[in-house]
Amino acid sequence: MASSLTQPAFWVLTALANQRRHGYEIMRDATVASGGRVSLKVTTLYAVLERLEREGLVTADGEEIVSGRARRYYRITEEGSVRLADEVVALEQLIQVARARLATHRFAFIAQKVVPT
């Protein structure tokens, strides 16, 4: 399996998972979808997009001029969708481990409080 996605790459792929978007839409969607935990900077966004494009996970998908400015659109590739799905599975496995350990810890903590000494 490939190495874990960086947090910015994860959110860029997530933003593109359901539709093609241009840069500002990707940044806005990442912030909203992450509950405000992620705020991509322009330089970070385009560095991530370039890397993901080199890896075949996203592709440029047209350009248009809006208010005199060029908007370049991107879309996730099939390979990118598979990679994002793999990352989601890996994260879910980590969450299961953490939940199980917290549940055990919580049970042990409660048991200590209930058992008289």
TrEMBL record:
Pfam families tied to this protein: PadR
Annotated Transcription regulator PadR N-terminal domain residues: 12-85
Gene3D superfamilies: Winged helix-like DNA-binding domain superfamily/Winged helix DNA-binding domain (1.10.10.10)
PANTHER family: PADR-FAMILY TRANSCRIPTIONAL REGULATOR, TRANSCRIPTIONAL REGULATOR RV3488
Protein name, UniProt field: PadR family transcriptional regulator
